[in-house]
Amino acid sequence: MNTPPSDVATPVVSAFYDRFPYPGDPLQDGPPPGYNWRWCHDSVLAVVRGGLESRDSNLGPIRILDAGCGTGVSTDYLCHLNPGAEILAVDISAGALDVARERLRRSGGAEQVRSLRQEQRSLLDLDDEGCFDYINSVGVLHHLRDPLAGLKALGQRLAPHGLLHLFLYADAGRWEIHRTQQALALLEAGIGADGLRLGRELLSELPETNRLRRIHEQRWAIDTHADANFADMYLHPQETSYDLERLMALIKSSGLYFAGFSNPSVWDPARLLKGDLLSRAQSLPPSDQWALVEQLDPDISHFEFFVSAQPVHPLCWENDETLLQACGRRQSCLWGWPSKSMLGPDLEPISLSDEELSLLRLVDENPNVPLGILSGDHTTASLARELMSKKLLLLEADDGLFSGIT
After folding, report:
1. Superfamily name with CATH number, domain 10-171+241-308
2. Rounded mean pLDDT for each run of 10 residues along the chain, 406 residues in total
3. Under a CB-based contact definition with an 8 Å cutoff, are residues 73 and 34 in contact?
4. Which among 77, 174, 294, 375 could disulfide-bond with 39, CB atoms 3.0 to 4.6 Å apart, if both were Cys?
């Protein structure tokens, strides 16, 4: 585009990603390996809002924005997991977009959707694009000079009932990364080929007992095997990170609303505590539980979360009669379906009972039939709730049930 970008740091960051197109995931023929529910609009709605509106209420194709798509890894998943959608993928780096276009060509992703545009644009300059039902912006805002301006810009592109998925760096789990970055800056390593060479030398020549080298080898060596990934982690010219308090303040300042973590198990105190300590933790309000987890787990290196334009009040499906009147949809982000043993929507191993598999099969084969008609068994409601807790069953609600959900 000919219009100068709104963020003064954009040309520097764009040049960096032209040099090191990120992420450095290899290209492949056919659909991407494994599936992640965070890139599937139906799955996200079911988790955040508690259910889906009926198919009859769908007024047209969903619109999805991949804001800061990089080399197209996220765009590829968005295409394959949201067939029939209209998708716009933007990035400031021409080099990264060249890789993204080739990735989508080889994977056949564009053939899965109604339309796909891949354009070199800043997420700050999309005022002519209208609103989107779902916006994915992973690992992007923390590279802007003014992340709040970026969040506000995305919020302006969010439909009234839309959701925005974000990934931002966390302070504590990047302690060693920050110090390595600062050391390389003091050594005047630069952000090009010399910086890459010197950065790898530094982390291989420090004493084996050195904390920076040890944590890199334990946590980040595999992730940074590709040069682009190493550069993104240790050489990036523009980066911000947050703690939980500053993150929530950022969201509040944007005029948007926190709608839940997309990795909620990380923020569950039961992951770290038991007995009386866990009971005390679980008696706290959710925000204090999250603050406690942040203090107890200094390895948390990022925040994954959803925000919305309006407050969200999710359905709970506590009433059996209401639940059995709903129609179901099988989670599409499964690896190995149909089987009693699969990889689930977080790529976790899942084992189903015969009854659970049978109900999921019925739902899959009869997508517009209420659960109570599909199966008259008195255990259907409890089976459905168990499958919902595993993110394997998504329920459709009629418009009346959603009247209280913004």
Report:
1. Vaccinia Virus protein VP39 (3.40.50.150)
2. 62 92 94 89 95 72 97 97 97 96 97 97 95 97 96 97 97 98 97 97 98 98 97 96 98 98 97 98 98 98 97 92 92 92 92 94 91 84 93 83 47
3. no
4. 77
